[in-house]
Fold this sequence. Notes:
Oligomer: heterodimer
Strand content of chain B: 5-15%
Helix content of chain B: 40-55%
Largest sheet of chain B: 2 strands, antiparallel
Strand order of the largest sheet of chain B: 1-2
Number of helices of chain A: 8
Largest sheet of chain A: 2 strands, antiparallel
Number of helices of chain B: 3
Radius of gyration of chain A: 17 Å
Strand content of chain A: under 5%
Order of helices and strands of chain B: EEHHH
Amino acid sequence: xxxxxxxxxxxxxxxxxxxxxxxxxxVTAVIAFFSHAHFDGAIDIHFxxxxxxxxxxxxxxxxxxxxxxxxxxxxxVASDSSVRFIDIAGxxxxxxxxxxxxxxxxxxxxxxxxxxxxxxxxxxxxxxPALITQGLLTLPFxxxxxxxxxxxxxxxxxxxxxxxxxxxxxxxxIAEIISKVILSFAFKH
Amino acid sequence: xxKKLPHTCPSCASPLRVKSLICGHCATEVSGEFELPIxxxxxxDDQQFILDFVKSSGxxxxxxxxxxxxxxTVRNMLDDIIKRLEKSEKLSNSSKK
Lengths: 189, 97
């Protein structure tokens, strides 16, 4: 059970994982459209702003594409084993499934933060119990998502130990920066 | 109980050699100094993996299907066995010198 939750890639990878992952991304985009959940960065999640449906679909695709290109290149450099692109693409798509559950957290009614409001109002809005609850509930899913991404990287590249950890952290930071830049150009948030 | 074949010396960790062999049928004993094959120096699970790999005509895809594991997991297992074999080979070569 634990292996299926944190490392399903021991059993599913390649094209099968890619097809399941794409289906998850599509369903998550539909839920995110209704709950106003934005995946505006490789490991970013924000709730609130309403946007056209296409942005809810393109955001996770851009995030995923940035992650797989970065991780594939790092895997090729750091690993002695042969690294297949389809394994990275498939496992990283399947690793997004906790985000399907996170998208539902956008349905929690929270105060709309007005950036033009005074500091006192902003602080009281940011410290609202609903917003704090939403944040606290999101956190374990993000940890789970990152753990899945790490295991996807480790299984696909046969990297272990400190070499795997540092390559993964580097890849995550690079993917986050690239995805933020692409998304800011694509949607001018 | 299946006895494990020891392949390193418990005292100095050097590779062990075979001193005598016995016929299971007539109990004739052959003495001498023989080297253990490299394959005997890796764990039993790894030996079984190599046997299954050969039986599946060297197809990792078939191996993954029969073991109900993903392709990269099986490829990683093979890569790890190759590393262990290379290490055993080095150890065996260095003990000969």
